Amino acid sequence: MTKIAMGALIVVGTAAVLVVVAFLLVLYQGKRKPGGDPAYVAMGSSFAAGIGLGQRAPGSPIACMRTIGSYPQQISRSLNLPIMDVTCSAATTDHILRGGQYFQRAQINALKPETKLVTVTTGGNDIRYVGDLSFIAARNTASVSGWLMKRFWGGPLRADQRDYAAVRRDLVSVAREVSRRSPKALLIFVTYPTILPASGRCPLLNITQDEADMMRFVGEQLAGATRAAARQSGAVLVDMQKLGADHHACSQEPWVNGWRNAQGAQFHPTRLGTRATADAVVQAIRSHAPNLLSK
């Protein structure tokens, strides 16, 4: 065997071992029972997990990218309320209800009869909201990733191809499960914050006007689905889409990153954004369950 062939064999073998190790790590972390105290249960996707906002939260599977800078972790510290944080980047409402993400159980299984507070931010991955927004911005770059996107990506879903009604139905199902499993808990649905300005665009977004118009509509429909689910189920709503309307990615004090110059994950909340979200949730608790503030 030549030295080149031997070297290639070593590289391939090493890569295979790393893949197997990574798979086993994800499997182990996914099957492991979540840690923490379920007095407060936080569920949802990367917007709740706090991707890119500091060190990994205790007990977080690596793939979930859950951090101590997330709004649930800040609420837990602020209220001195023990938390079982099962948020996970890329999660859908199906993962909350039925599980399967990175071999994990359904997030809803974290609920217990003694749970006092539940927060949920989800739905964006169901309709490819931030995923498509990120792919569009990447496609518009003069880079290898831009070339790959142009060549191999089929493009974003049209706005009318996204099932907003299914998001609403699944959120109502989440509310029913919370009521059944944790009848004493205060349930708060938290919308995704505003990413795009009410009109126009800015260079930080790296998208065209037509792309901005389409994705702005998608974001509005997602927020509408969450509002409708809260009304139908009786859940408390913290509407960061409205509260953050003047703090979009193009603003002077953004609560969400753009594509360029992101401090954290692109098109995801900034530290200011998660702080504002945590404050808004605490204010909602003060209005609807002030007894939690003294625990």
Automatic annotation (TrEMBL):
Keywords: Disulfide bond, Hydrolase, Membrane, Transmembrane, Transmembrane helix. One of its GO terms (biological process) is triglyceride catabolic process. It comes from the Bacteria. Signal peptide: none annotated. Disulfide bonds join 64-88, 202-250. Residues 42-275 form the SGNH hydrolase-type esterase domain. GO terms for molecular function: triacylglycerol lipase activity. It comes from Alterirhizorhabdus solaris. This is SGNH/GDSL hydrolase family protein. The active site is at 46 (nucleophile), 268. Gene3D superfamilies: SGNH hydrolase. The chain crosses the membrane at residues 6-28.
